[in-house]
């Protein structure tokens, strides 16, 4: 995580990290981060694509990727499938592409598998939503915590959604105090 800005600023560094991850069979994660990343930094993003084990973005970032790559569809499901099935360097694990959609289900495509799995987001009363800034980063953080703990994919998605739900109840990209612990 956080490597997208490195992709834009120092492509050599991201490629070194990508190669190290593939060589040592370590998970390599890319967040599309913002629509301008796949639009204006297409070449560095594409160069790192064979190394992604996980790629995470929201529906706007997925659409921007589709547009910059002239995909026939900008539908989030179609983009997720496309991302999941790009050529991959490390064949020891399948790539997972995740597209979040705010209050709509989180979409997950797994390399070589048919269809897209949908995970309904955690319900929240609209009156409890304070600020959605940072919700995507919170999702990614919770998701990656699950992956690093060797949780099943479904549990990691649930952890990401849980943390995003906490985040949007706060002002700015912050988390509640006192600390809460995932107990899913």
Automatic annotation (TrEMBL):
Its EC number(s): 2.7.1.20
Span of domain Carbohydrate kinase PfkB: 8-179
Record keyword ATP-binding present: yes
Pathway connected to this protein: Purine metabolism; AMP biosynthesis via salvage pathway; AMP from adenosine: step 1/1
Cofactor: Mg(2+)
Top EC class, one word: transferase
GO CC terms in record: cytosol; nucleus
Keyword terms: ATP-binding, Kinase, Magnesium, Nucleotide-binding, Purine salvage, Transferase
PROSITE patterns: PFKB_KINASES_2 (PS00584)
MF annotations from Gene Ontology: adenosine kinase activity; ATP binding
One example of a Gene Ontology biological process annotation: AMP salvage
Keyword Ubl conjugation belongs to the record: no
Catalytic residues, chain numbering: 137 (proton acceptor)
CDD domains the UniProt entry points to: adenosine_kinase (cd01168)
Known catalytic reactions: adenosine + ATP = AMP + ADP + H(+)
Cross-referenced PANTHER family: ADENOSINE KINASE
Family to which the UniProt record says this protein belongs: Belongs to the carbohydrate kinase PfkB family.
Task of the protein: ATP dependent phosphorylation of adenosine and other related nucleoside analogs to monophosphate derivatives.
Protein's name according to its UniProt entry: Adenosine kinase
Organism: Hapsidospora chrysogenum (strain ATCC 11550 / CBS 779.69 / DSM 880 / IAM 14645 / JCM 23072 / IMI 49137)
